[in-house]
Amino acid sequence: MPRVIALYRHPVKGFTPERRDELVVQPDGRIAGDRVLAFRFADAATPEDRDGLDHWPKSKGLALESFPTLAELRLTYDDATRHVRIMRAGALLVDAGLDAEGRRELSDAVTDFVMESPEAKRLRRPGRLPIVLVGDGEHARFQDRARGYVSVHSAASVAALGAALDHEVDDRRFRSNVVIDGVEAWDELAWTGEVRIGDVRFSVDGPIVRCLATHANPDTGVRDAKVLTTLTTRVGQSEPTLGRLLLLQGVSGDVEDRTGVGGVIRVGDEVLVG
């Protein structure tokens, strides 16, 4: 029987995942505390409108795809106090709240870090500085897609990719919310219909086509694994794909109807497909 073996949330878009024993799926289909904050470029501090929904393209803020050195930072977020703490190599980089002064401290510290990194020239482009920390720390707004999804992949698929790479691969490269075992490699790409994790029911949506962020080592930020070309050559995919998107049942793309029945998913929960 397929089961959940790991759960992750990512409080700040593009930064360290937090491993959790359980995740709360909100009625809008998003994970509570996941991508509730983001560091955005100065000219992209307000959302775009896509089909009546707020959309924050990752290309217009700090993200691993273009700024892989961010993986060096270890970030934790305290939901109760709305406090962000960022460490680098065991030393405190910044610890601040989400008031105006705290946001400036966080933005300044992250800007200084990036400006000392190999990606500094990307931050000097017109319209990018000063970096702005956006989000209220409560609402999950900064996914790559306008609709709220839960992302899942299997440990077997990651192991198969690692075998093709001849390189051990860490689940954190793929920044999924849910990791499962008990299925064969790539089985999740063939899922259809309903998926139930514990007591929470989802509908299967599209596969996850991966980007350059997966090349970055999740501890060092070094691009040390050619994930995309390995998926399309050695694995034989037409597009570099790993994992599936799940849409909470009852949630649609309509502005007037975006509420499903959420719940809690936990490590050890059974996963029922079909």
Describe the protein in words.
This protein has 274 residues and is an alpha+beta fold. The chain has four helices and 17 strands. The strands form five sheets. Strands 2-1-12-11-15-14-13-17 form an eight-stranded mixed β-sheet. A three-stranded antiparallel β-sheet has the order 7-8-9, covered by helices on one side. Strands 3-16 form a two-stranded antiparallel sheet. The longest helix is centred in the middle third of the chain and has 16 residues, at 100-115. The radius of gyration is 18 Å and the shape is globular. It starts with a strand and ends with a strand.
Spatial ordering of strands, largest sheet = 2-1-12-11-15-14-13-17
Q: How many helical elements?
A: 4
Instruction: Give the number of DSSP strands.
Output: 17
Q: Under the CATH scheme, which architecture of the largest domain would be assigned?
A: Beta Barrel
Overall number of structural domains? 2
Uncertain runs are none
Distance linking N and C termini? 13 Å
Approximately how much helix is present in the residues?
10-25%
Spell the H/E element sequence. EEEEEEEEEHHEEHEEEHEEE
Overall morphology: globular
Largest sheet, in brief, is: 8 strands, mixed
Strand content: 25-35%
Structural category: alpha+beta
Mean pLDDT: 92
CATH topology (level 3) name of the largest domain: M1 Pyruvate Kinase, Domain 3
CATH classification, class level of the largest domain: Mainly Beta
* Rg calculated over all Cα atoms: 18 Å
Oligomer state of the chains in this structure = single chain
